[in-house]
Design goal:
- By secondary structure, this protein is mainly α.
- It has 6 helices and 2 strands; from the N terminus they run H-E-E-H-H-H-H-H.
- A hairpin with an 8-residue loop joins strand 1 and strand 2.
- Helix 2 packs parallel to helix 6, helix 3 packs antiparallel against helix 4 and helix 4 runs antiparallel to helix 5.
- The radius of gyration is 19 Å and the shape is globular.
- The N and C termini lie far apart (about 40 Å).
């Protein structure tokens, strides 16, 4: 004899799970589009192959608002879109060649950085501005490490530092401050969905 349960009926649970999965997919796809749009806001910097873009800010915000898993999935989808030839990389570039060039390390670091930003957010680091900034700076460090290490293979360690990290520090700190100030509103928006 089967015991009766007072849990949610199976049909309703199936509908909720399917709806949640569809919502998660929609959020991941939308977040990958946000990263792609941010990539198009690009300023070439003299003396370096790395342009100043809004991608790091978008990756960090995607991570902290969607969480570690969905944030990393959105950044990975962004890479897949670019790999497939869609013009989503900085300055409208796309194709596999961009994942082998000197700036590929930054791109490859995005899923990891989004995961780290989301991990900190899931542990309450978005509850205060100072903690949000600290968590986002750690995630930004992941982007710098990925970009610097890959670029060092092309330009040497010092050249990678001078052309791939140092010119961007002040601008990226400002991006993190902007991201931390936007975080409470974005988290409220996502929590309503």
């Amino acid at each position: 004899m089967k015991a009766k349960t007072t849990s949610i009926p199976a049909a309703l649970l199936t509908r909720i799970v399917r709806g949640r999965a569809a919502l998660d997919v929609l959020l991941v796809v939308a977040a990958s589009a946000i990263i792609a749009i941010a990539a198009q806001i690009a300023i070439p910097i003299p003396g370096t192959v790395v342009p100043l873009t809004m991608q790091p800010l978008a990756v960090l915000l995607v991570g902290v608002t969607l969480g570690s898993t969905r944030g990393a999935a959105a950044a990975a989808l962004y890479l897949l879109e670019g790999f497939s030839g869609m013009p989503v990389f900085a300055q409208g570039h796309g194709g596999a060649i961009w994942l082998a060039g000197p700036t590929a390390g930054y791109l490859f670091s995005y899923p990891f950085a989004a995961f780290v930003a989301g991990w900190f957010s899931e542990r309450g680091w978005g509850s205060t501005t100072i903690r949000a900034i600290a968590g986002m700076l750690v995630a930004l460090g992941v982007i710098y490490l990925g970009g610097w290490s890959w670029l060092a293979a092309f330009a040497g360690a010092k050249g990678a530092w001078l052309g791939g990290v140092r010119p961007f520090i002040l601008a990226d700190i400002l991006k993190v401050a902007i991201g931390a100030s936007l975080l409470p509103q974005l988290q409220r928006l996502i929590s309503r969905i």
